[in-house]
C-alpha cells in the first residue's frame, strides 16, 4: 500500500489503484543492512533495461551525537576491507594479469541542482559523502576486478586491455540529496550500475531515526552480472535456451560465448501529440538540452509499456530518432524507431508487419496522439 501521490512516478507498475509492485527492495529502515530483491519498473526498451530486475540495496546510519567517532571507525573498517580484498585476490590461484584494473573518475561537486539539505551541516555531510563514495568504490573494485578481459566489450583499445573505467555523475532520487550514479564504460557506452546519496532527513524522522545521518545505495545486480560474465543483453537472463544456460556453473565466473544472432528489422512510428497538454519527460538523448522536457503530455514510458505488451521480447530496442515542433500549430511530432529481433529465430516480414500494425493501433487507442 502506498500514500496518495507517490504513484505519480511514470516508472511505477500498478496492480490496481491502491497497490504497486515494488520499484525498490527497501521498505524498512534499520541502522545498517543489505537487502536483495526483485523489483519492477516501467522503463526503456533496449539491451540494458527490463521491467523486472534484481537490486541490492544498503543503508548505513551514523549517530548525530557520536558522528565523528563513528565516521572515523568507518574509515578504519574500509582500510581493513581493502587489505583483505587485496589479500584474497593475491592468494587466488586464478589471479593473473588478465584481471581488470578498475579506474574511477569522480569530478562531481555539490551544486544548487544537487544540493545539501538545509538541516544538515555541510562539513559533516562532506565526510558522509566521502564515506559513501569510498565504500562504493571499494565494493565495485572488489567485484568487477574479478572479471577477466577475455571479452573485448569492456575495453576501448588494446593499450587498455585490462582496464575498466567507471565514473560518478550527478543524479536525482526522491529519497536522497545530494545524489549520484556510478556508470561503467561497457560495450562502447556508459552503463549505470549504482545509484546512491545522502538520505533525506524527513525520511529518517518519519522512521523514528531523527537522531541519525546516513547514506543509501542501490546496485543493479543484473548489470553487474552482465559485466562480470560478458553478457551483452539483460534479457538473456530470462532465456530458457540451453545454449545460454549450459555455459555457466555456480561459483565460477566465465565469459559468455555468443551464439547465432538472428537478423533484425526496424519500423518507424510517427505521430503528433496534443498541443494543449502539459510538459513531461522522455528518456531520449534528443531531449538532454531541454531537461528531458518535450512540451507535450506524452510519457515515453507509456509508449514503451504498450510496445512491450504487444510485441514482448521480439523488440530489441525502441529509440526516439526525430522530434520537431510546428511553429504555427505548436504541435510536437515524434518519431520512434522500433527494432524487431528474436533471439531464437528469424522473424518473417508478415510477423513484423502484423506486430507493427498492432503497435500502431494500440498507441492510437491508448495515448493522446494522432498517427502520421
Helix content: 25-40%
| SS strand fraction | 25-35%
Domain unit count: 2
Strand adjacency order, main sheet: 1-2-7-6-5-4-3
CATH architecture of the largest domain: 2-Layer Sandwich
> What are the low-pLDDT stretches, counting only 5+ consecutive residues below 50?
1-8, 155-159, 285-296
Mean pLDDT: 82
Structural classification: alpha+beta
Query: CATH homologous superfamily of the largest domain, by name?
Result: Bira Bifunctional Protein, Domain 2
Report on the biggest sheet. 7 strands, mixed
**What name does the CATH topology of the largest domain carry?**
BirA Bifunctional Protein, domain 2
Between the first and last Cα atoms, what is the distance in angstroms?
Answer: 40 Å
Reading off the top of the CATH hierarchy, the class of the largest domain is best stated as: Alpha Beta
Helix count equals 7
| Estimated radius of gyration | 23 Å
Rough outline: globular
- Helix-strand pattern, N to C? EEHEHEEEHEHHEHEEHE
Amino acid at each position: 500500500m502506498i500514500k496518495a501521490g507517490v504513484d505519480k512516478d511514470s516508472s511505477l507498475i500498478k496492480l490496481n489503484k491502491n497497490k504497486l509492485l515494488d520499484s525498490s527492495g527497501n521498505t524498512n529502515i534499520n541502522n545498517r543492512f543489505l537487502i536483495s530483491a526483485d523489483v519492477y519498473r516501467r522503463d526503456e526498451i533496449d539491451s540494458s533495461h527490463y521491467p523486472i530486475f534484481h537490486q541490492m540495496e544498503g543503508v548505513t546510519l551514523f549517530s548525530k551525537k557520536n558522528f565523528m567517532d563513528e565516521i572515523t571507525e568507518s574509515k578504519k573498517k574500509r582500510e581493513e576491507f581493502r587489505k583483505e580484498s587485496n589479500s584474497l585476490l593475491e592468494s587466488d590461484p586464478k589471479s593473473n594479469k588478465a584481471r581488470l584494473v578498475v579506474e574511477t573518475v569522480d569530478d562531481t561537486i555539490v551544486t544548487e541542482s544537487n544540493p545539501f539539505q538545509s538541516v544538515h551541516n555541510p562539513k559533516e555531510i562532506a565526510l558522509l559523502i566521502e564515506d559513501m563514495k569510498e565504500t562504493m568504490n571499494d565494493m565495485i573494485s572488489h567485484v568487477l576486478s574479478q572479471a577477466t578481459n577475455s571479452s573485448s566489450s569492456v575495453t576501448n583499445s588494446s593499450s587498455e586491455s585490462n582496464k575498466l573505467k567507471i565514473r560518478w555523475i550527478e543524479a536525482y532520487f526522491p529519497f536522497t540529496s545530494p545524489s549520484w550514479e556510478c556508470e561503467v564504460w561497457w560495450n562502447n557506452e556508459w552503463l549505470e550500475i549504482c545509484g546512491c546519496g545522502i538520505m533525506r532527513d524527513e525520511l529518517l524522522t518519519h522512521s523514528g531515526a531523527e537522531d541519525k545521518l546516513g547514506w543509501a545505495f542501490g546496485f543493479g545486480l543484473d548489470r553487474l552480472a552482465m559485466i562480470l560474465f560478458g553478457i551483452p543483453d539483460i534479457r538473456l537472463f530470462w532465456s530458457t535456451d540451453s545454449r545460454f544456460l549450459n555455459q555457466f556453473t555456480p561459483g565460477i565466473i566465465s565469459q559468455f560465448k555468443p551464439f547465432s544472432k538472428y537478423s533484425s528489422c526496424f519500423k518507424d512510428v510517427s505521430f503528433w501529440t496534443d498541443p494543449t497538454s502539459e510538459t513531461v519527460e522522455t528518456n531520449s538523448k534528443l531531449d538532454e538540452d531541454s531537461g528531458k522536457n518535450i512540451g507535450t503530455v506524452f510519457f515515453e514510458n507509456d509508449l514503451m509499456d504498450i510496445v512491450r505488451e504487444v510485441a514482448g521480447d521480439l523488440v530489441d530496442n525502441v529509440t526516439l530518432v526525430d522530434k520537431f515542433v510546428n511553429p504555427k500549430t505548436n504541435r510536437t511530432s515524434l518519431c520512434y524507431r522500433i527494432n524487431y529481433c528474436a533471439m531464437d529465430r528469424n522473424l518473417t516480414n508478415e510477423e513484423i508487419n502484423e506486430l507493427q500494425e498492432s503497435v500502431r493501433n494500440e498507441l492510437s487507442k491508448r495515448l493522446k496522439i494522432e498517427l502520421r
